Design the sequence.
């Protein structure tokens, strides 16, 4: 299992699609060392002053039959906060986070997209194969210099295997900085 944690990962550019390679654990070139785009992110924002601003983060999959489904936390008093088996169906190709503040008050956003901080995902890998994973504690933020995100993700490298339980002693990402290591299954 691949597992990686990010705290304050800068989104390198605004108003542009940026690819992220889940197997490499990095942005696609020229922003990182990733080679294959699995997820595409597009972050846009406007800041007029500290009371009037808006931002939007659009996250989508790079292929058909791939997507996200909101995760329901089912183990409230356990180390394992989220389910370990990804569902087969119910996936949507896109997640949209959007926030608008006007005169210091949050505006209601009319969006049909599910808003959650944890998702199962599946990515297309070849003609008949998919890889399953989960994205947990996803939190986008805005600063005066742009956007950044916090999240942890788990990715099963075995095609068509929906099991997402991590053995913390056998993470396929090697030599991670202490802040990027995942210590919970």
Sequence:
């Amino acid at each position: 299992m691949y597992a990686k944690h990010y705290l304050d990962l800068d989104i390198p550019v605004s108003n542009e699609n940026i690819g992220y390679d889940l197997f490499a654990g990095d942005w696609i070139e020229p922003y990182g060392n990733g080679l294959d785009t699995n997820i595409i992110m597009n972050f846009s924002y406007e800041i007029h002053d500290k009371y009037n601003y808006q931002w939007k983060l659009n996250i989508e999959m790079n292929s058909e039959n791939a997507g996200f489904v909101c995760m329901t936390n089912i183990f409230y008093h356990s180390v394992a906060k989220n389910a370990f088996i990804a569902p087969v169906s119910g996936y949507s190709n896109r997640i949209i986070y959007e926030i608008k503040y006007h005169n210091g008050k949050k505006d209601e956003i009319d969006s049909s997209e599910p808003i959650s901080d944890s998702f199962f995902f599946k990515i297309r890998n070849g003609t008949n194969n998919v890889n399953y994973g989960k994205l947990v504690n996803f939190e986008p933020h805005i600063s005066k210099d742009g956007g950044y995100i916090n999240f942890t993700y788990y990715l099963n490298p075995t095609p068509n295997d929906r099991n997402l339980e991590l053995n913390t002693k056998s993470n396929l990402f090697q030599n991670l900085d202490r802040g990027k290591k995942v210590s919970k299954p």
In short: The chain has a mean pLDDT of 85. Residues 47 and 143 are 9 Å apart (CA to CA). DSSP finds no helices and eleven strands in the chain. The chain has one domain: 2-180.
